[in-house]
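Listing S7. Sequence submitted for prediction.
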Amino acid sequence: MVAVATGLSLPLRAVLSLSFLFFGPGLALAELLEIRDLAQRVAIATACSLSVGTLVSLALVYARAFSLGLAIGIIATLTVIVLVVAVLRARSRLVSGDQAAIPL
């Protein structure tokens, strides 16, 4: 959304948008699940991101309200919510003194 608002060129917008859709929601979920292994994180990020995109698109199609902007907005909102939960969870563990919450 920022790429469109700032007026970036079409190829750059496409790369940024696809990168977000392929990795954004899944990386947020991997952070929430506290997965530290890089290979697992990339595998989960890709699979979960594609799944979230598919589920959101299907829900909008079934609701007869599909719009690309709406789909990306919903995916971005879900990603932000998952990231906020992950940050709050990590912060509460740091306050309680749990060593497992400190990233490697």
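Caption to Listing S7: primary sequence and predicted structure tokens for the chain studied. The radius of gyration is 16 Å. Residues 30 and 37 are 10 Å apart (CA to CA).
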